[in-house]
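Record minuted for everyone:
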Amino acid sequence: MKEKLYKFMAGRNGANQFSRFLSITALVLLVSSLISSMVFKNNVGTFLSYMALPILLYSNFIVFSKNLTKRRAENQDFLNLKYKIFHKFKNIKTRFSQRKEYKFFKCSNCKTLLRVPKGKGKIKVHCKKCGNDMIKKS
């Protein structure tokens, strides 16, 4: 049986991060539809289950697809989007943890985030990216 499964999956995409994300999203929608229909007795549960079905079908399509180049490109686009989102939250977390020691400014010319030590009075802030100089109070 194991050998037949190996032969069937040969040349197919298999599970990647994007298909796993879609499967987990569909599972969350199905569980919330079940809870919604049991607790609230309304049509939201039916709507959520109808939303979960195409997501689950597309996830299975990705796993069994033989068009590897398109599926890899889809997965790479998903990973790039995920990186952008997590990187933005990581930057916010870092700024929040450094808020007592540093003050943050945006360059008026190129909008780059600049960090200067707090409590130094009026200082000249130099942007390394564009060379713009500003006088700011730290």
Residues 11 and 47 are 36 Å apart (CA to CA). The longest strand covers residues 102-106.
